[in-house]
Amino acid sequence: MMVDLSGNGAVSPGHTRHGQGSGNTGKKTSKKSRTKRGKRGRKRRNKKNIRNNKTPPPYFPPEAEEGNIEYKLKLVNPTQYRFEHLATQLKWRLQEGRGEAVYQIGVEDNGLLVGLSEADMRASLKTLKRMAEKVGADITLLREREVDYDLDRNTRKIAEVLVRKVPDDQQFLDLRVAVLGNVDSGKSTLLGVLTQGELDNGRGRARLNLFRHLHEIQTGRTSSISFEILGFNSKGEVVNYSESRTAEQICESSSKMITFIDLAGHHKYLKTTIFGLTSYCPDFAMLVHAHSVPALLRPAGTTREHLGLAMALKVPIFIVVSKVDLCSRGTVERTVRQLERLLKQPGCNKIPLMVSGADDAVTAAQQFTQSECITPIFTLSSVSGESLELLKVFLNILPPLSNSKEQEELMQQLTEFQVDEIYSVPDVGTVVGGTLYSGVCREGERLVVGPTDEGRFLRLKVGSIQRNRSACRVLRAGQAATLALGSFDRSLLRKGMVMVSPKMNPTICCQFEAAIVLLFHAKTFRRGSQVTVHVGNVRQTATVECLHGKDELRTGERAVVRFCFIKHPEYLRLGAKLLFREGVTKGIGHVTRLLPPSQNHDQNQNHDQNQQEH
């Protein structure tokens, strides 16, 4: 914490030093002498404050009762009763952090950084390790820092320790990271290096295992959505496909799982990228930018567009500058400066945080989720491995956005599963992939799926469940998985459907109203315009039926608009984020009202009558 110790060294204008006159020359000399005396006075006061130990102590924010961060001054030789209390407290912090907690040792509850001697620090860490073992967790020392504000004492230290539960029954912490960026920026190669544990050969060998289609292998460009997993065990060590591990072994050994959603970078696959961002509900977004890609310099470059999409959907974003082995240090610095200028523009209002060391990576991971403005920036190479470890440290410490209380509230609601993918698997039958929005889903559970083109919901039974390519008995809110539906007719299913509990009595709509802001339009946005609407896993063309209170919209204007799907009804939720586009036309908003099919006909008749009267 920086405090201004400078005093006011100015002297009263009426006072002059001995030998000074009252003319103009005297005034100039008096001003200079006052400045010199002010500087000397500040130096004397600073030295006096240091001698008198008046340097202000550094502080953390006061400890919060909720959350997964705990301050402890010291944990030296606690009694058995005190130890049991500390273990219970640790269990609570782990529950708040969904299996993770951060302990700051040597810090008082009000946030004062007191620090501990070497002996007390060793004893405190030993006690914390015993506490972790009692609740089934491991500890990892993230960093130690010296607290040297008091020069009369010996140097003291504070320690930051990560406590993480040992995995049990597949209850690992799962974070989803969407990977964005321009074509040829190295997104798939970076994911291949992270998940396979081997560096790239400079010609894209690391990305081959990620591609799903032959044309992707031939062109080296992603055109579909693929998923890759990276695990961390309770000690913070990387668990990936190296050492011939299978996906099931990675899940069994990991306490924390990062699921990367590899999205397409080419502009012609933009609708697939938007679908991945809206449907799979990523917790974070990683924007990969190569120094050699000129898209950042173009007003409508893919890098800018992906950044804008993530910000519009309020997905926290961090940036990775790749391929730094192909250019000089100066080129990398120029690229970073361009990114910083882009992030600081009025439309973004972000605070770039350059990560150049392990300490920066820890700080970035903690501040990233606490402030919407912080945007960490990494510079690395998938060929030389430069700074790759810093990204792993960041991902290892990155906390979840939601706490256990919010998770429990979602699990108490009725089951709602979004259908994002549909497959036919030999000897298994129809399989659907997607995300469980709310509730709990178990093997053998009976649900209804819809809406169909006629607006009906059909009964079905869930067979087996797989999560991250390994068998799973219970699926909880917020988790992505694939569900086997047995002999259910695949032709009755489509992307955008939902599988819900029969108790829910789901409502569907052909028309809905949304409060929108028009981000860009070449001319004017008016009644009769057709756009592609993205709401969660729903993607369908809709017609603008009317603009409340306005005849037309221009870029930057807001309005409440009624949309009508042109093909079939959909299941929507009030308050859901909405994104629509058509060519260069783009807009965002949220759903404010649903019009059931029975009201649609009446609304249209009233609107036509009003138009005829006018």
UniProtKB/TrEMBL annotation:
Keywords annotated in UniProt: GTP-binding, Nucleotide-binding
Compositionally biased spans, kind Low complexity: 599-614
Q: Quick one: where's region Disordered?
A: 1-64, 592-614
Protein name in UniProt: GTP-binding protein 2-like isoform X1
Source organism lineage? Eukaryota, Metazoa, Chordata, Craniata, Vertebrata
* Taxonomy, superkingdom: Eukaryota
State the InterPro entries in the record: EF-Tu_GTPase, EFTu-like_2, GTPBP1-like, P-loop_NTPase, T_Tr_GTP-bd_dom, Transl_B-barrel_sf, Transl_elong_EF1A/Init_IF2_C
**Record bears the keyword Nucleotide-binding:** yes
